[in-house]
Amino acid sequence: MAKVTDDDVERVRGLVAAIPPGQVCTYGDLADAAGLSSPRIVGWIMRTDSADLPWHRVISASGRPPSHLASRQLSRLADEGAPVVDGRVVLRECRWSPPGR
């Protein structure tokens, strides 16, 4: 993984904080908007520094959350009005585009 700077972390945090309720953003979209080389970097940042952020609004490009978070994440998103069908977020209806993307 590429070296992650404090500026990288703060850019990702700012983008995640800006995702409106009921909308989602993919790891790849966030990586592009933050100028990072890989969605995996966003995943690492989210795993290590997102307790105070709307982490549930960040999802894979498949729209399916990881199994260990699926029920919690999908429940939170549905409560906000995001469309969830068969255990998957309907990205075409609620995908948020970060500024600069």
UniProtKB/TrEMBL annotation:
Residue span, Methylated-DNA-[protein]-cysteine S-methyltransferase DNA binding domain: 10-81
MF terms (GO), sorted A to Z: catalytic activity
Keyword terms: DNA damage
GO biological process: DNA repair
InterPro entries per record: ATL_DNA_repair, MethylDNA_cys_MeTrfase_DNA-bd, MethylDNA_cys_MeTrfase_DNAb, WH-like_DNA-bd_sf
Keyword field contains Endoplasmic reticulum: no
Keyword Acetylation: no
Protein name, UniProt field: Methylated-DNA-[protein]-cysteine S-methyltransferase DNA binding domain-containing protein
Organism, scientific name: Gordonia araii NBRC 100433
